[in-house]
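User: Hand in any protein.

Assistant:
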Amino acid sequence: MSKTMVQIKFTIESDIVSTFKARCASESVSMASVISEFMKSGHSGRDTKARTESRGQRKKTVEQLIASIENVMNMEERYRDAIPEQFEARYENANHTCEKLAEAISCLEESY
């Protein structure tokens, strides 16, 4: 079995490279062996179950994000509703914020 050697050049941000080097040093492994294993395993070969779990995790994260935005929107609505009539500009700003938060929730719900 013959091996073909290939040289690959990466362009990566310096802080990522530094972190990668430090992690390899702390684990006492060579950077080349880590990259080689990564290239062998590849992400396209992941099984369907792993991809499904990953999508499920993303959906759960989106649902948590929606809940957080709804919480902020409810607080903004309470703030808006407590603004006295003479502060019309504040009311309009708060109302605009509520509308935009509702749009964000709608977009996230449509996505997942």
Remarks:
- The longest helix spans residues 48-81.
- Residues 48-111 form one domain.
- Helices lie at 14-27, 31-41, 48-81, 88-111.
